[in-house]
Design brief:
Layout (H helix, E strand, L loop, with lengths): L1 H18 L1 H14 L4 E3 L8 E2 L11 E4 L4 E7 L6 E6 L2 E3 L10 E10 L7 E5 L8 E6 L12 E8 L4 E8 L6 E10 L4 E8 L2 E10 L17 E2 L15 E10 L5 H8 L6 H21 L1
Antiparallel strand pairs: 1-16, 2-3, 3-6, 4-5, 5-16, 6-15, 7-12, 7-16, 8-9, 8-15, 9-10, 10-11, 12-13, 13-14
């Protein structure tokens, strides 16, 4: 009887672990923070107008939610480890000082679940300053679906201010499903070329290492200077013809001032499902107790 009682208790603990979403969210956030992002927006707020920055740079780089062009809805279901997400329906999050300087090596990552109704000109992160200012535009059909990344494909465009060329990487992606999208850029002054890469769910989907010039991600004081960072649109002004807002769910947005390694990116994409590790360990304990009970009998 005692062994059976312990087995029942262990089963209860396993079920509790499966439902404990907060533990899984903590696991993911600790993994991201361990890789030292400049800014990290978890999008777990339930009210207000502030998107908190969880990175060590702190509240100075919080984002401000703007709904002049449409909605930003809190508390939406996210991927297994995401806590809650924002649903962007025309609004955006602006963080004018998030990039403290221009980045010659960088990584942008986000969990995205875009709406099938808008697969073009749907930019979920940008520093588009207008003109040719080392702008970086990230999204579905970025910049507009006819220039650069095609419609219903996710990718990143870099607008080189020196050569006035658009360089990009992209890949088709189905709508209405959670995926981890990671883009990296890195200048190589020694070779005179630069590299853009795109990873989807931890796997390299597209790469171009023959880009002439650079792929600098401009920040404060960079060429063009403002705007610095917009999440959920290409520019922080819904009245601008280049606004191009994102439509869909977005979560766990992070920016790094270096290029994440393939192993780091894979680790972010492939955390075990919530509760699976607990199931394995407690399941083994229950099995051991049952065997012990049979031996005692």
């Amino acid at each position: 009887m005692k062994v059976r009682n312990v087995s029942t208790l262990m089963l209860g603990l396993m079920l509790a672990g499966i439902s404990a979403g907060s533990a899984a969210t903590t696991t993911y956030r600790n993994l991201v923070l361990g890789d030292s992002p400049i800014v990290y927006y978890e999008f777990d707020e339930t009210s207000g107008t502030t998107a908190a920055n969880s990175a060590k740079t702190g509240a100075t780089y919080n984002g401000t939610i703007n709904t002049a062009g449409g909605s930003v809805t809190f508390g939406q279901s996210s991927f297994a480890h995401g806590g809650t997400a924002y649903d962007f329906g025309g609004g955006f999050v602006g963080s004018a000082s998030a990039l403290t300087s221009s980045l010659t090596a960088w990584t942008v990552e986000a969990w995205v679940n875009y709406d099938s109704a808008k697969g073009s000109a749907s930019n979920f992160l940008s520093n588009d300053q207008g003109g040719w200012n080392n702008d970086v535009l990230i999204g579905f059909g970025a910049e507009s679906g006819t220039v650069g990344v095609p419609a219903f494909s996710v990718g990143v465009i870099h607008q080189d201010n020196a050569n006035q060329t658009r360089n990009f990487v992209g890949s088709p992606l189905a709508a209405d499903d959670w995926v981890l999208v990671v883009m990296t850029g890195e200048n190589d002054t020694g070779l005179g070329t630069s590299t853009l890469q795109l990873y989807i769910d931890g796997v390299l989907a597209d790469s171009d290492s023959t880009i002439p010039g650079d792929v600098t991600f401009n920040g404060i004081g960079g060429f063009g200077a403002s705007p610095n960072l917009t999440i959920g649109a290409a520019r922080p002004d819904s009245g601008d013809a280049g606004y191009r807002p994102y439509d869909g769910l977005l979560d766990e947005v992070a920016i790094y001032d270096y290029v994440l390694t393939p192993d780091q990116i894979s680790a972010h994409a492939n955390i075990p499902e919530p509760g699976s590790a607990l199931l394995l360990s407690l399941g083994g304990l229950v099995l051991g107790l049952r065997r012990r009970g049979r031996n005692l009998g």
